[in-house]
Amino acid sequence: MSTFNHEVFSHSSKIVGDELVIAGIRAQQLVKEFGSPLFVLDQADFFERAGAWRDALADAFGERAGTVYYAGKSFLCKEVARWLDQVGIGLDVCSGGELAVALATGFPMDRIELHGNNKSEAEISTGVEAGVGTIVLDSFIEIERVAAIASELGKNQRVYLRLTAGVEAHTHEFISTAHEDVKFGFSIASGAAEKAIAQVSSHASLNLVGFHSHIGSQIFHSDGFSVAARKLIALLATYRDMYGRELPELDLGGGYGIAYVPGEKTLVPAQVMRELAEVVVAECAKHNLLVPKISIEPGRAIVGPTTTTLYTVGTTKDVTLENGQTRRYVSVDGGMSDNLRPALYDAEYFAILANRTSTQPEVDTRVVGKHCESGDIIIRAISLATDCGPGDLLAIPATGAYHRSMANNYNHVPRPAVVAVIDGTARVIVRRETHEDLLALDI
After folding, report:
1. Which regions of the chain are under pLDDT 70?
2. Are 347 and 260 in contact (CB under 8 A)?
3. Domain map (residue ranges) of the chain
4. Are 13-42+305-439 and 115-298 equal in CATH topology?
5. What confidence score (pLDDT) does residue 172 get?
6. Which positions ≥6 away from 354 have C-beta within 8 Å?
7. DSSP letters of 322-354?
8. Which pLDDT belongs to residue 153?
9. Is 388 a catalytic residue?
10. What own/partner pairs with CB < 8 Å and gap ≥ 24 does 273-276 have?
11. Strand 186-187 with 157-164, pairing
12. Tell me: the pLDDT tens digits for 415-431?
């Protein structure tokens, strides 16, 4: 049923009368003023979720709490970087472009973590010269690359080693990142991790302060995080035995799941951190280690539920299937250019009529985009009212993470604007692209 569901919408979203209202602003008003499709980001919800992860880490680990690094890949713009600074958490960047956003806002460099499996020399140089807090090393070549650049710049660069813990995260294979056959990090099982430790330790320009692990994305159970923590802590003990000192930090990554459709539950930060702390403390005691400073990297878990995409219905079509049944196709004015996840990950979404309610019967519906591609499907199957038609607004919640950040210009379609809403006010934080923007790159 396509009725409003609190689990998947932002906290400031509700139905008032017959219409969706976000932070006190009607959906129709937003589309009238800012156009469609439109990403509507609930600013208060963002602050609430970011603060919840910050507080959960602090409550669970006390003085051993490290940094909450917001995963910029989920969605980043200058205004979001400013919000992160206000909340007092860090920022994880994995490209020169994401780092440029942070630099443009004056984000504190000591709270920046520079990631990526193939950082260019230019990206590394920019990061080291700017004073990024930590660089996460991902390959033997990169160890030498960062060491040489840091030496040339006269820096002693803090680094983590990204380790592959051999954990099978129960998620889509494209977003599972800690099993052995993957492009990220140094394998613990194969011995590559110990070789990487020795290689880093041979460079005076590198300061190895800890290990890093990220097991995947959209994970709903803490088991995988616990297994990874056990393996990394065992390696911390090995490091102590080899080098006579303990590494002070451990970054256990992110990947915490959120609800996209009714029936799913967004992970509760306090519960996840409490469970993780129990494992970390017990494992450190087992190996006679001090508890290292624990950092985490939520991205989707902060921004994902904050945002609702508003689409305008353009056409509808009834298609008779081979079994004689009928499916209604509802085409909207966006699609795989602003939400690539269904095509990429078979991701599931939920939608409601945002401009009115309907008393008409519901019918099996497929919500599709406007692109010249059969795979341009936003929602494969949902029940929507039979009178859903041209001019209606559809609201799809939980579209804050990996939507605008993965948006593209397929068919030369301009990317939508992002509007932040709070307390009855709305403002553009990322403007809508125009055809002039698309043509500006042509020579």
Report:
1. 1-2, 167-180
2. yes
3. 13-42+305-439, 115-298
4. no
5. 38
6. 19, 20, 27, 28, 310, 393, 394, 395
7. TTS-EEEEEEES--TTT--HHHHH------EES
8. 98
9. no
10. 273/56, 273/57, 273/59, 273/60, 273/61, 274/56, 274/59, 274/60, 275/222, 275/226, 276/60, 276/222, 276/225, 276/226, 276/229, 276/252
11. parallel
12. 999 999 999 999 999 99
User: CB under 8 Å to 57, separation ≥6 — which residues?
Assistant: 65, 66, 68, 269, 273, 294, 295, 296
Q: Are 426 and 25 spatial neighbours (Cβ–Cβ below 8 Å)?
A: yes
* 115-298 placed in CATH 3.20.20.10: yes
Q: Which pLDDT belongs to residue 175?
A: 37
Catalytic residue among 77, 94, 372, 388: 372
Quote the pLDDT of residue 168.
59
Q: How far apart are CA 249 and CA 209, in angstroms?
A: 6
- Decide: residue 154, CB within 10 A, 0-12 exposed, 13-18 middle, 19+ buried: exposed
Q: What is the pTM of this model?
A: 0.94
Instruction: Using alpha carbons, list the distances in angstroms from residue 265 to 93, 121, 149, 168, 218.
Output: 27, 42, 45, 21, 11
Give the DSSP H or E segment for 141: helix 140-152
Report the amino acid identity of residue 31. Answer: V
Of 247, 356, 302, residue with least CA distance to 83: 302
Domain 13-42+305-439 fold? Lyase, Ornithine Decarboxylase; Chain A, domain 1 (2.40.37)
Token code pair at residue 313:
């219905």
Retrieve residue 335's tokens: 């699609």
